[in-house]
Amino acid sequence: MSTFSELGLREEILSALADMGYETPSEIQQKAIPQVINSTDDLKAFAQTGTGKTAAFSLPIIQQIDPENNNVQAIILSPTRELAVQIGDQIQKFSKNIKGLKTVTVYGGASIEDQFRKLKKGAQIVVGTPGRTVDLISRRKLKLENIQWLVLDEADEMLNMGFKDDLDAVLEATPETKQTLLFSATFPKEVEAIARNYMYNPAEVEAGTKNTGSDNVSNEYYVVTERNRYAAIKRIADINPDIYGIIFCRTRRECQEVSEKLIADGYNADSLHGDLSQAQRDSVMQKFRNKNIQMLVATDVAARGLDVNNLTHVINHKLPDQNEAYTHRSGRTGRAGNKGVSIVLVTSREVGKLRPIERKIKKKFIKKDIPSGEEICKVQLFKLVEKVKETEINADGISGYLDNIYEQFEGLSREELIQKFISMEFNSFLEYYENAADINDTRSPRERDDRGKRRNDENMTRFFINIGRKDNLTPPRLMGLINDQNITNNVEIGQIEILDTFSFFELDKNFETETIDAFLNNAPEFEGRNVNVEITKKRRSGGGRGGDRRGGRRDTTPRGGRNDRNNRRDGDFRGRRRDNGAANNDPSRNRSNRVQNKSWGRKRD
Ligand code: AMP
């Protein structure tokens, strides 16, 4: 194994690397650095995120830049602002001992005038996102006619994000004599086309095996019904109280929905997607890096900018549309020598979709069962016991009260005291999971297709409505009536049961209060009758669900919805959540989360 010095890097760079704690070059650095220093050939590098690729392309460029010439000599394109900023920051650190070397980072969503000014002052290296780079080129503020190096970082992502035209425009604005370095974790045909069209006889290097997942990642899957995806995430989080992970969603909406539910249920979660402003995204990412957020619900694109090496879990709420993306997702965990778990939630119909991914990652998925309530309670209970044992006694702080406290507890045995303390913390959690249904989908394909027998719908609430067949009510008319109440955007409607004089329908349980309020406020009529809607605790006829273990919860306080979450965006999440107990739609979460939070907090200390 070589050292950085043996790779041929100059002293100013070596001292900066030492200051940054870089001791040994990573595999991609060992391969790419000498190649780019010693040859002007183009380079195709297969490298996943987290392999040290930023230094792999930056160091040989910094080594060869002429700091006395103020013209742009290297342009580095990266898919997201976050990644561009990270690369720019790293280059500044690598080059801090090289006098006169300047780097400017340009990206959309920030003042273009500021970027004009910085470019005007002169910079040898420019890091940019494709759109803003093209903008600056077309305004003639960025001149690439004489550059020597062009780096396309995460080329597959840039193409996935629709930057093909921008890449073409930048490539056209650069001289043929430049050296192109193309870094990509995957090489789908679009990336190969860029290599073919714009690179001349490139050298190839790779770190790890192309398109395969890390050996440190265990790939696991759970089979659930569509409706129980969210319940499954809750259980996975509950059985892993120290979880620190990303939940990947395919769309912004999916992201928003999952994170809203998690927040309302009292978890340390937040979302990261393209609908947020840049300031909001920065703030969420910072909280996640600081571990103030345990679970980040993110779209593939938004998560690209995150540089976090110690995630315990990646959860695929739904499989990505493209198999390539699974490698990116799972590669967010198991980094820097840590072990990680990549979990996929699939419906029984989707199990077959795992096979092509297995071929790509060259590893088998392990089938796991969603933990039962009992298993979760056991884990949480022992976590609590461990926490009590580890709690330091603040002797000075409590000494003044102790005599009185001992007096109050007089007559209670040690066993009774322990039981009372544990019950105080744990009762509602136990109640929540007591009689919890098995949410693993073990149905045969025939049962699965029998829509009338849907089971285990933890996420739905059943409502009674005082109109029925005699009022000419049909399922489509009932759906129309529900939609007319504008409860919330696209609330999910579950099973509908029309009887003679009354009916039942199911709606997403997160919108119980909104549903009741909407019917009350709108006071709709149907065929001349005043419509009345109530939450019912009765199971539907023929339904397979057990007792209503959450019966008492239904008519509780209003819960945190969208507004609640928006408020939280700007404030201290933890503080607000605590004050917000009444807004949680699931009182048991307050308890369970206290268990989680405290253990989490201790870990941070
Ligand atoms: P990258 O793949 O460039 O995003 O790098 C992933 C992480 O590894 C970053 O936090 C880098 O600072 C760090 N890193 C990269 N190369 C090395 C190295 N040779 N020694 C120590 N840390 C490194």
Task: Describe what this molecule looks like in 3D.
By secondary structure, this protein is α/β, with parallel strands linked by helices. The chain folds into 4 domains: 203 residues, Rossmann fold (3-Layer(aba) Sandwich), CATH 3.40.50.300; 151 residues, P-loop containing nucleotide triphosphate hydrolases (Rossmann fold), CATH 3.40.50; 61 residues, no CATH class; 146 residues, RRM (RNA recognition motif) domain (Alpha-Beta Plaits, 2-Layer Sandwich), CATH 3.30.70. The chain is built from 24 helices and 20 strands. The strands form 4 sheets. The chain has a 7-stranded parallel sheet, with helices on both faces. Strands 10-11-9-12-13-8-14 form a 7-stranded parallel sheet, sandwiched between helices. A hairpin with a 2-residue loop joins strand 18 and strand 19. Helix 16 packs antiparallel against helix 18 and helix 16 packs across helix 24. The longest helix is centred in the C-terminal third of the chain and has 20 residues. The radius of gyration is 28 Å and the shape is globular. It starts with 10 loop residues before the first helix and ends with a helix. The structure holds adenosine monophosphate (AMP). The site of adenosine monophosphate (AMP) has 13 residues, from helix 3.
Provide a compact summary of the structure.
With 605 residues, the chain is of the alpha/beta class.
Integer average pLDDT: 83
Largest sheet: 7 strands, parallel
Instruction: Kindly report the spatial arrangement of strands forming the biggest sheet.
Output: 3-4-2-5-6-1-7
The number of domains is: 4
- Ligand list: adenosine monophosphate
CATH superfamily of the largest domain: P-loop containing nucleotide triphosphate hydrolases
Count of alpha and pi helical runs: 24
Class of secondary structure makeup: alpha/beta
